Amino acid sequence: MSKIEVNTVAPQCGTTLTLGESGDTVTLGSGASQSGFGRTGTVDWDTTPKTATFSAVSGNGYFCNTTAGVITVNLPAGSAGAIVSVADYLGTFQTNNLTVSPNGSEKIFGQNGDATLSTEGQSVTFVYVDGTQGWINVQDSTSNVTGETFICASVSGACNTLTTVDTNFKVAVFTGPGNFTVNSGVGGLAKVDYIVVAGGGGGGGRARAGGGGAGGFRESKVTATSGCWSASPLAATTSLPLSPGAYPIVVGGGGAGQPGPVDAGAGSRGGSSTFSTITSTGGGGGRDDDSPLPGNPPGPGGSGGGSGGGANPLNLAGVGNTPPVSPPQGQPGGAATSPDGAGNQGSGGGGATQAGFGNQCAPTSGHGGDGATNSITGSSVARSGGGGAAAVPGRSAGPGGAGGGGTGGVVGGLGSAATVNTGGGGGGSDGLTNPGAAGGSGIVIIRYKFQ
What we know:
The chain is mainly β. It folds into two domains: 44-147, Jelly Rolls (Sandwich), CATH 2.60.120; 148-451, no CATH class. Helix content is 1%, strand content 24%. A hairpin with a 3-residue loop joins β8 and β9 (134-140). The protein starts with 43 loop residues before the first strand and ends with a strand.
C-alpha cells in the first residue's frame, strides 16, 4: 500500500476536490478527527444510564434514568452539525422530567431557554444548525421540542400597576380597565395565576332591606407558576397558559342600591370582571321588604343578594355561583326564615365562601357572608364579602361580611357602601324613602414568575 505525506491537498483547477471514486469508502485513521465535514446524523450511544445532571458531548447519545429525581442535560457549545441524543431509560420522564439546557445564550428551536421532556418513553435527537434557531430536534418519538421562556409583560391603564415581589415574581394589579400584554414567553413557563373579582351587588332599599351579594371570586394557585403565597379554599389548581399578545382586562363596577321609594324591587347586580378566559359574575342585588309582588326576588349572581324582612313566600334568597363554575365563585344570599312581624329583619348578601345569614327575630339582623382571603399581592387581604341587612326599631343592623361588605342601615337609616375594589356587597337600608347602598367595584390581580 502506497503512502503519501503532505500538509495540504488542493485541486489543480477549479474549487472541487474529489477523494476516491464512485463506490469507494474514505475513512479516517484510528484516533483521527475531522472538521468541516459535518456529521451523518447518527450518534454513538453511551450504554451507562445517566442518573444525575451531566454535560453532553457532541456525537453521543445518552440513556437518562430519572427514577430518583429530575435530571438536567447541559448541551455542548453549538457548532454547525453538532448532535446529541437523549432517551427515557425507564419510562419515568412523565414523573421526573428531563431538562435540556442550551449553552449560555444559545437557543433551542429559536428560544434561549431550557426545554422540558415530560412524556413517558420520549427520545429526542438535537442537531445544532445555526445561531438563529440553535438546536433543532430532528428525531422525536412524541412531539416537537422547543425552549421554554418566562413571561415578560407590561400593563396599561390609569392606576394599574406591575411590581416585583419575592425576587423572582411579578404582580399586576388592575383596579380599572387596561391591557395585560405578554411581550414574550413560550412553553410551560409562560403561565400565570390570578384572582378575578367582580363588582358587588347593591343593597335593597325602602324598608328592612337585605344586603347585596358579593361579586364573583375566581382564583388559581400553583406554586411553580407564582411562588409561595396563601390561597383561599376557592383556588383552582391549574394555572392559565398565555401566548404573546394583549389581554384586555375588564373590572366590574359596583351595583347601584335599590331606589328607596320603589316597592318590591332589588338592588342592581354588579358588573362582571374578565381576564382572558376567566369571567367572574357581578353580585346579586339585595331586596326590599316583603311586598307580595311576583318577579322581584333578590338578584342572582356571583353571590346572591339577601331577602328583605318578612316571610312572604316570594321573599327568597338570591342564588349564588350563577352561572355555575368550579370551584364556585360565590354563595347564596340569606332568606326569610321567621314569621312576618315588626321584629322581623332583612337577610345578608352571600359572600365568596359563606352564605348570607337569614332574617330572624334576634338582636341583630342578617349579616353578610364572609369573602375569601389570600396573599397574592404579598399581604393577606379579604375580598368579596356580602352586604349586611337593615335593622328595624329595637334591633341592630347586620354587619358586612369580611371582604368589604357594607353594613346595613339602622332604624330608618342608610346602609353603608361596600369598599371599593373588593367586590363587596352594599348594605341594605331601612326607611320608606331610603335607597340601598352601592356595591364595591371589583379587581383583577395576575401573578407569575419572570426569571
